[in-house]
Design a protein that fits this description.
648 residues; 17% strand; alpha/beta; 21 strands; 6-stranded mixed beta sheet
Amino acid sequence: MGKPFEIELEALPSTYAWAISQPVDQLCRAVERLVAHPMLAVGSGGSFSVCHFAAHLHGVFAGQPAIPSTPLQAVSHRTPIANMGILIPTAGGNNPDVVASVRLLSEQEPQSMLILCGNAGSKVASQAMRYKTLDFISYDLPTGKDGFLATNSLLAFSVLLSRAYLEVSGQSSILPKEYRSLLTNRRIDPYELAAQRRYEDLLGKQTLLVLHGSTTIAAAVDIESKFTEAALGHVKICDFRQFAHGRHHWLAKRSGDTAILSLETPHDKTIADQTLELLPKSVPTTRLSFVHDGWLADLAGLCEGFYLTGVAGRQQGIDPGRPGVPSFGRKLYHANAFRARHPSKMPAWKARAIERKASERVERLAKENRLTFWAKALDTVIDRIHEAQFCGIVLDYDGTLCSEDERFKPLPEEMADALTSLLESGARLGFATGRGKSVTKRLCEALPKKHWPEVTVGYYNGGQILTLDKCDSLDGNDHVAEELSLISKAINSDRLLSRGNITLRYRQITLSNPRGMSLDALTEHVEALVHRVAGNGLRVMRSGHSVDVVPDSVSKVAVVERLLEQSPSGASDAVLRIGDRGRWPGNDAQLLASPYGLSVHQVSSDAYSCWNIAPPGQRGWQATLWYLRHLKVSKRGTRFRLPTFKED
């Protein structure tokens, strides 16, 4: 098993050049979803070092906290991840811990999940296909599989992520064009005698103490990881100030057995000088001074650590790329530590539905005697939906029928088929969207023309309602109604908002892509502006990509009312509603505030409306498909049939 480590070192320059040249468009879109939230970066072994480096990038470019985590920490401790993004870097994609992590973390439904993999045919790739809203991005690494230690994959993933974060943040790349420019001495010969001499004193000691600054922790973590995994020596890592709090005592008792490696950026020089000046002069010390600062120094430190590992291996007669793995090690690696377990006696779908609603784990709800309330409320809602005979179905569009990323593309074929099948069976459909004619085009492509007169569309959040065959009457002019005129002037003259896109329609103003503002920040800002300028009478809502301002009288519920008006005499007055943004200020909050409202993503806190009862891990259009496939259409109406729920 493995690959000679010297070959791994020789390949680093070409791997760097490869990573600098690869397309990152898809990766950027996934990182764009990550930067809106705190992040949990999950990995084992060398991937754990990538996690530390990614957490560094996330803090710098997203301004959000990020936590590097092992799979056991992420899964077994049941970290509350509903409001986080997840990054899982994995080179091979087949180790059982990462495969289990993908499944278990997906079922907890974080805000987004990116799997960066070096193997498109891996078990992780197969696992990822089960979850439509997960970003699985694979790169065919030029060096193939790593040896025993993650080296070229670690460099490649770190460079690719750096490029994506730079691009998403709108910054120019500061990555050197050549790999050698990352290094402290710009030399890349793994057999170089200078490198050998630089580290000789350090590696002759029993313990290597790696001191680092605030920006080189990933490098320090990787040195510890490689020395331990390849049995090259005992490494302790510590930042310069944490070392002052008790850890310095190690040198008081063991200075004769210890050497110090100081990782220093230009920014760290003062604190490094101050620290090292106070330490016993008898302790061998090497100062590795990077020419770069910040995250770029961390990347450089990762590379320097590879060469240190190579020198240590040669000195000890161990090839770090193939050190020999004992049989117990193989058994440990392949052990299944994440067998499915259900801490609650409740069925998994039901537990997940309650957790979405209560924003608490069911174990905690049970412990605090609150689980029964939510379980009874869910049973009540399920019974009502089961008993109802629906005269129509109203669906949101973006995030419900398709992913936000692909909202301008044709509907997924499975979704078009499911909607057509319902129409052919006699179901009546309505669509409620914040968009205009772009939705018309996609619905006309997806649905047979003979059904267009039967399909009701509420454009601009219900501001204008037409049947699909009358879509030519849609008002696309950019003049606004009287009730929107004051806020329209205020928005157009606002210094922050004028940097984004502003679309004016008669009964709706849409804002998107404000440079330097998150959607949450945009929503708050627009809300404040409305309160100051227009007072009551207007409503601010957000979708997954924009913020809309509409008069209070405009609502997606108007589509429900139109279906009821069109219903034959004697028909049921129940309309099933499906959307993804049921939590205020989501643009489906009003639509789903009904006993017959089902969400495919965000839910409200009301116990008797707007539940998401899709299977764990399913979200967006995948969850919508699941709902639609449980509808049964008859001459008397449409019913929702979930037989497995009764069996549970």
